[in-house]
Design goal:
Layout lengths: L5 H18 L6 H5 L9 H20 L4 H4 L17 H19 L7 E2 L7 E2 H28 L1
Helix pairs in contact: 1-6, 3-5, 3-6
């Protein structure tokens, strides 16, 4: 990839973090993936569920222009960590992969300077959305690394 291809670099970084957060669930039991080790409701499986929600908010709501209600998404970030009895490692990974595929399709033909209007606080550029998603993915990968280390230490 050419060093000056900003879009390709951003896509590569986002894909790297998407894979990294999924890998934190690798070879864990359902119980380990749901294990709460901090005072919040944060778990490894909950982190992936939140990251899936977050990407749907940014790419399907902000870029795609479909409301959270229409998408069937919970309204608040805190609620996006909560696991249902039906959530499994396989189902949450599948939902994450589907959200990533949708994000790729939604952004495929848009330049980074495209102005998207689905954000609650007003218009943003696609570049801004990419940087926000990258920031959140990196942030949550750090959380997941620490939680995985704790889960495996027990």
């Amino acid at each position: 990839m050419p060093l000056d291809d900003e879009r390709a670099q951003l896509d590569a970084f986002i894909e790297e973090y998407r894979s990294a957060i999924e890998m934190t669930l690798d070879r864990l039991t359902e119980e380990q993936a749901r294990c709460r080790l901090v005072s919040s409701e944060t778990t490894l499986l909950g982190l992936l569920k939140h990251v899936t929600w977050m990407q749907r908010v940014w790419f399907e709501e902000c870029v795609g222009g479909t409301s959270r209600r229409e998408l069937g998404l919970v309204q608040s970030p805190d609620d996006s960590f909560r696991l249902s009895d039906d959530d499994t490692v396989a189902s949450v990974i599948a939902a994450h992969r589907e959200a990533c595929a949708t994000a790729r399709t939604t952004t495929a033909d848009l330049p980074l300077n495209a102005v998207v209007t689905g954000h609650r606080a007003g218009p943003r550029t696609l570049r801004w959305v990419y940087l926000q998603v990258l920031r959140e993915l990196a942030h949550h990968c750090g959380h997941a690394d620490i939680l995985r280390e704790q889960v495996l230490a027990d």
